[in-house]
Amino acid sequence: MRRAVLILGVVVALAATVLWMTGAFAQVQPWLLDQQREVQNRLAGAVRAMRGGQPGAWAALMAVCFGYGVLHAAGPGHGKLLIGGYAVAQRVRLLPLAGIALLASLAQAAVAVALVGAGVLALGWTRAQMEEITVQVMAPVGTAAIALVGLWLMLRGIRAMRAENRKLHDHHHDHHHDHASGETCNHAHGPTLNDMEGLTSWRDAAILIAGIALRPCSGALLLLILCFGLGIGAAGVAGTVAMGLGTACVTVAVAALAVWAREGTFASLPGAGVGSRMAAAILMVQALAGAGIAVVALMLLSQNL
What we know:
Blueprint: H1 2-21, H2 29-51, H3 57-74, H4 78-89, H5 94-122, H6 127-181, H7 193-196, H8 202-213, H9 218-229, H10 233-268, H11 275-304
Helix pairs in contact: 1-10, 2-3, 2-9, 3-10, 4-6, 4-10, 4-11, 5-8, 5-9, 5-10, 6-8, 6-9, 6-11, 9-10
């Protein structure tokens, strides 16, 4: 039963991939953009109500900001690509990956606060200038960073596969020697699944968080500029955090789907559970997923240049 549920994750992921590659998801994008514009209008109204001291204005602003974060994350974005791709490439458990997704969304909010604080308060930039910096500078840098992460994962997978092949070659040589000398082979025949887990590190987490945080949300910039201009900067900061939490809901869901699909793929492989075979499959998936991240990021980068 458990294996069937895991394999279902592969079916769901493949269906989503086919829909994305055939452009089916592109039909939803205009609706999402319309909804974002509508929520931006409500956002401006909530800010004015907040400035006027209307009852319930604070809760209404937080609710609108959270909803905008969900809509923003549901559209095309690099955060889902990086979190989902890493979940496929590394056999990391869902809980720490969900924590990374949450921290990345909050870091993205923090970057928006820092950018507006430095740009508007210190340098006197307008909203148009802030968005230009975000689109023309931070977005390409963030996309290029994601491509580098993909290449790094791919090369790490290739190096690990080479090391594993050398280890197996040495093992077979020692195994032959043991049999020739009449000794009993009592060493491990390849790594176990536990050996292949926990490959993530604080360095990996920092790279993921930085790659997502480099491009702040345009809605957060609008909110912060409005709130700082009206003298209610604290509300703008709180609303930006609410947007980050809304974004995290989507990225955590993407991480869960990616982990589900990854484990289903491994469960459906012939000889699943055999240490050396599973280790080889994990390393191969890591290399391919890294290559996929790099290719998609480079395609996005070429479209933005």
